[in-house]
Write a structure and sequence with these properties.
This is Outer membrane insertion C-signal. The chain has about 160 residues and is mainly beta. The chain has one helix and ten strands.
């Protein structure tokens, strides 16, 4: 029951923060990370080629990732975009975990519908409670893109 209360609070505050911060994309991320396999996924633009990619994951505990994608560019002349970033990763359970995570991924924004799909790889170096390195952290992102013009908000 304790985990359901924590989960409810995290989801509530994540949704409230997403609505208040004018996120450009909100959706779900599937993949193994921190013992969890589902996350609320959001993208917040910092300009034309930079953004924050944040996740709140839930499962056996609660995980929070906030990665700064400092490179966000098109792949040639295609509609695909690739990105690279890094940032902190927290896992709240027993044991507690604080990590530094990297991210490299690719995504596609549909023009006809406001949906973005993507895949990423997040190697993670756990610093606190134990020291470990995880290279097997992959994810699939499916997000709803906000905006009325049908273009990607982070272009």
């Amino acid at each position: 029951m304790k985990y359901f209360k924590i989960l409810f609070l995290v989801v509530f505050f994540a949704c409230a923060a997403t609505l208040e911060s004018n996120a450009q994309e909100v959706g779900i991320r599937f993949g193994q990370f921190g013992g969890n396999n589902v996350a609320i996924d959001g993208v917040f633009s910092l300009g034309q080629f930079s953004r924050i990619h944040a996740d709140v994951s839930f499962g056996s505990g609660v995980g929070v990732d906030a990665l700064w994608d400092f490179i966000y560019r098109p792949v040639g002349s295609s509609d695909f975009k690739w990105y690279v970033g890094a940032g902190p990763s927290l896992y709240i359970d027993d044991p507690f975990s604080l990590s530094a995570a990297g991210e490299i991924g690719i995504e596609y924004a549909f023009e006809e519908v406001p949906i973005v799909i993507g895949a990423d790889w997040r190697p993670t170096f756990r610093i606190v409670e134990n020291t470990d390195f995880f290279a097997d952290v992959f994810g699939l992102n499916i997000r709803w893109r906000f905006g009325n013009d049908g273009s990607n908000a982070t272009n």
